[in-house]
Specification:
- By secondary structure, the protein is of the alpha/beta class.
- The protein has helices at 7-10, 21-36, 73-80, 103-114, 130-135, 137-143, 156-169, 176-186, 190-204, 212-221, 224-235, 239-246, 248-251, 254-273, 283-295, 298-316, 323-337, and strands spanning 13-17, 44-45, 53-54, 62-66, 90-95, 120-125, 147-150, 173-174, 209-210.
- The strands form 3 sheets. The chain has a 5-stranded parallel β-sheet, with helices on one face. Strands 2-3 form a two-stranded antiparallel ribbon. Strands 8-9 form a two-stranded parallel ribbon.
- The radius of gyration is 22 Å and the shape is globular.
Length: 339
């Protein structure tokens, strides 16, 4: 997939493909750290223009854009051609590159990839599986002009090996039964599994081993797992999964579940508004919340909190004869309003 060209040029343009978002985000995070650890900068949320990440005063050499935004690729590529301010190279990420709907815009990207600037590293992120990538003529042509990095979904032995590795990163070992339970509960959703491992690591404290009993005790009594999964489904615009998860609220304390749901949405709203106390969050909470805030519109969050606050008041004052039906009505309205 890589054309016969100068290796230094290839390292100036990367094309990320595959449908395993967690591994892709890990790779992006490691790349950002490699670029900015010496200079002291780090990527932060820009709450303007849809809450996307972008350059900030303390990270002038990092920019994050989305291909379906109004900004022309020509404007982005002009930034790529300028000299970096503090670092050896600029780092520019364009997400959802597959959504470029203009042949002129695609041509601009291809022309740049043929002769990339030595001042920048350009990372183009395609939210497509490898199979769909091969069907996309624009991306396959782009792949010939760039360094392609693929991120596949993990299954079976690869998934269990990854779970063990993530536990070891937290200085823990994990029993096969606990790994299997996480797989049953979360499938191969690596982000959700990583969050559960983080919570289990905190839960077992100084113990070096996470047992199956630990996993069953924590996941069995923790309503936050369902709430976190539901907010994540909403952030990914997976309305079908969000609706399916909402039925779990009926099996638990509906008031507590709705209250925790409100707390999470309020945190995302504060992150977008720049008023959240991020120091109080655990690492896994912070990363998840920032990613979700990036995806959910500010207007929708305000509407959701207004509706949920009203429902919570009615729930506490027995305004609904069937409280679960009321919860479903509120959620359906919010799903319909989600762009």
């Amino acid at each position: 997939m890589i054309a016969d060209k100068n290796a230094d040029d290839r390292r100036c343009v990367y094309l990320l493909i595959g449908d395993e978002e967690f591994l892709k985000e890990e790779w992006l995070q490691a790349t950002r750290q490699k670029f900015f650890s010496a200079g002291g900068g780090s990527a932060t949320l820009d709450n303007k223009n849809g809450g996307k990440r972008n350059s900030t005063p303390d990270t002038p050499d990092y920019s994050l854009f989305f291909a379906d935004d109004a900004k022309s690729p020509a404007d982005i590529l002009a930034i790529a051609r300028t000299r970096p301010f503090l670092n050896p190279k600029r780092l520019i990420v364009i997400k959802n590159i597959e959504l470029l709907d203009s042949s002129a815009h695609r041509e601009q990207i291809l022309n740049y990839a043929k002769s990339p600037s030595v001042n920048s590293v350009l990372i183009l992120d395609a939210d497509l599986s490898q199979k769909d990538f091969l069907k996309n003529s624009f991306l396959t042509e782009l792949g010939k002009l760039s360094q392609v990095v693929a991120f596949k979904k993990l299954y079976d032995a690869n998934l269990y090996s990854w779970i063990s590795k993530m536990a070891l990163l937290r200085k823990k070992r994990i029993e096969p039964g606990a790994s299997e339970l996480l797989r049953q509960l979360k499938g191969n959703n690596l982000r959700a599994i990583d969050e559960e491992i983080e919570k289990l690591s905190i839960y077992v404290g100084e113990k070096a081993l996470i047992t199956e009993a630990d996993a069953r005790q924590l996941t069995g009594r923790d309503i936050s797992g369902t709430v976190y999964d539901m907010v994540d489904a909403l952030a990914r615009k997976d309305k079908k999964r969000a609706l399916a998860l909402s039925f779990d609220f009926q099996k638990r304390d509906l008031g507590s579940s709705v209250g925790l749901f409100c707390w999470n949405l309020r945190l995302l709203l504060r992150i977008k508004e720049g008023t959240a106390n991020l120091a109080s969050l655990q690492k896994f909470q912070l990363e998840r919340a920032q990613n979700q805030a990036l995806r959910l519109p500010l207007g929708w969050l305000k509407k959701a909190l207004a509706e949920l606050t009203e429902f919570d008041l009615q729930l506490k004052t027995s305004g609904f004869s069937d409280s679960f039906l009321g919860w479903q009505m509120v959620l359906i309205r919010l799903l319909e309003a989600l762009p």
